[in-house]
Amino acid sequence: MMKGRIVASICGRFSVYHNGQIFSVVPRGILRKDNDRLLVGDFVEFDQSMLTIDRVLSRKNEIIRPRIANIDQILVVSSLKEPNFSFDLIFKYLTFANFNHVHSEVIITKTDIAKEIDKIVQIADVFAKIGVKIHFISNKTKEGIEEIKDIFANKVSALAGQSGVGKSSFLNAIDPSYKREIGEYSKALGRGKHQTKETILLPFSNGFIADTPGFSSLELNMSKEEIAQYFPGIKNHFTRCAFSNCLHISEPNCKVKEVLELEKLPRLVYDSYVKLSNEALMLYRR
Which is the most buried residue in 114, 135, 166, 224, by most CB within 10 A? Predict the structure, then answer.
C-alpha cells in the first residue's frame, strides 16, 4: 500500500501524486458504496498494482470554493482591469478564508494595462492598513513574477478569483511548462470566459499550486455574526468590543467603530463590511 495525494479528478478517475510519479486510479467499491467524497488535495492510500484507492486519510481542512482539501493558503487573484478591480469581491474571499482559518494574500494582475497610479496606491494603502499582504504583477511583462515565487515554497496554495483575472496566465508565467489554457475576456459581457473546468494541483517549489475554475459571483453562506468576526480589518478588533456578539453597526462601546473614527480603519472597508452584513440579513430572511 502506498500513500499519495490526489492532484486531479476526471470522470471518476483520480490522478494521485507519489514521489514525483502520477498514478491514475479509481476508488475501491466500498468507497463508492459509502459515497465517500474524494477531493483534490486528499491524502489517500492506494494499491499500486490494482490501481485502486483503498482509504482516504483525515483532512486538516476542506474548502467549498474552490472545492479542495488540505491547503495551506488561499491566494485571491484579482485584476486591475478586464474585469475591473472590486474591493467588495476581494473582501468576500478574504472573509471566507478567515472563516476557514486559512492564511490568505492578494495577487493583483494586469498592471501593464492599468495606468491609474493613484488607484494602485490606494489599493496598496487599504490592504496595508488591514494587515493583508498584496502583490502586484504583470503576466505579460513578468513584472513581480520572480519576487512572488517564494510565497509558494513548501506550501499547498489555492488560486481563487473571477474568470478572466489571469490565474492560468499567472501559472504559465511562473512555470511555462504548465501550458495552462488561457481564457479570453469578454468586453461585451464584462466578465471572463471560463477556461479551467476542474481544480488541479501543479507541483511547484516543493509544494503545489491549485488552478481552480473561475466564477462570476460569490455568495457566502455565513451569518451576520460570523461576518462580524471574520471580515478583514474587522477581525483584528472584534474581540475588544464591549459585547461578544457585537455587529459593529449600532452597538455601544464598539472598538471597530472607534478605530473607524480614528481613521485607522479605512471607511471603504467598513462600508463594504456593512454591505456584506446586510446581504447576510437578506439571505437569512429569504
Answer: 166
